[in-house]
Write a structure and sequence with these properties.
Rossmann fold, five-stranded parallel β-sheet, three-stranded mixed β-sheet, 7 helices, alpha/beta, single chain, 40% helix, globular
């Protein structure tokens, strides 16, 4: 079996990481989990800007700027600057190179702006693209229950993450079990 790249693209709290871990259990060879969160969580706070307590907008940033999102309130979304886009371009290139070296990858992604979408599409050639959908009310419920995220990112990212995307498979995590969804992804990729 040749090395595969599976890209799971969906809103924050849509269940991508859980599906990726279930895919790892199904895969006949090691399937390495990676994704955008490693870079967002690793980004230094000194290069991120946030709205003020009084609601005034965050200052522009070459890294990450948190701005109001388009989903139901509260709704927030990261706006990425040039430095962050450069880092993500290098991440996409490294993932493509790792796959060319024979390593299978599942990428947990949140492609929320045109630059990220273009980088990913142009670089991850031959990837199997999975749109991970979930009802926004369920996203908000999960995000709140998790307690490890700023409330509002699920709503904000859900409004834009699937824009201009073309998928090999679309799944909905609102009410379907992780195991069944992982099996759907696995079977669809094996049949492609």
């Amino acid at each position: 079996m040749p090395a595969s790249i599976i890209v799971l693209n969906g809103a924050s709290s849509s269940g991508k990481t859980t599906i990726a871990r279930a895919l790892q259990d199904l895969w006949p060879r090691p399937l390495i989990l990676t994704g955008i969160d490693a870079f967002i969580l690793g980004w230094p706070d000194s290069y991120a800007t946030y709205p003020a307590d009084d609601g005034s907008p965050a200052a522009p940033s070459a890294g990450v700027r948190i701005v109001p999102g388009l989903g139901p309130a509260p709704s927030w979304i990261p706006e990425f600057g040039d430095d962050f886009h450069t880092m993500m371009r290098l991440a996409h290139e490294s993932w493509a190179l790792i796959s060319q070296g024979g390593v299978n990858l599942v990428i947990d992604h949140v492609l929320i702006d045109p630059t990220l979408r273009k980088q990913a599409r142009d670089t991850l050639v031959g990837a199997f693209w999975v749109g991970v959908m979930c009802d926004v009310d369920e996203l908000i419920r999960r995000e709140t229950a998790r307690g490890d995220r700023h409330v509002g990112f699920a709503s904000g990212t859900s409004a834009v993450v699937h824009r201009e995307m073309i998928y090999d498979l679309v799944i909905d995590t609102t009410a379907t079990s992780t195991e069944l969804l992982a099996r759907q992804v696995y079977d669809a990729l094996m049949a492609s």
